[in-house]
Amino acid sequence: MSEENVTKIVTTETDAKSTEVETETTPDVDREPPAAIDSRFLYVDVAAQRAKQLRRGAWPRLKELAPNPETGVRPSPNSKLERIAMLEVDTQKIYYQVPDPNSSTESKS
Length: 109
Known about the structure:
Blueprint: E1 8-11, E2 20-24, H1 40-55, H2 81-90, E3 95-97
Antiparallel strand pairs: 1-2, 2-3
Helix pairs in contact: 1-2
């Protein structure tokens, strides 16, 4: 790994049921792949959070959208950012955390 710095982009919502999506700039060589997403609702939530990150300027993690090693120029995506986010989730490039429902800050009476 040539990069020393690890930067994280973490998107959080105020809702206690939202999903946190983490992306890093370092390769996933020493990380195990994320757990498979069985729920279609969790899939949509993770892909939507990732699409929001892409709209705000995060780089796509797909191999076909990687920069050219000689020039450093990234190809322009042919798909919408939502489709790119879904492909990233499908290929397990996105790591996510589901918050614990018991750790709610609100007290219920």
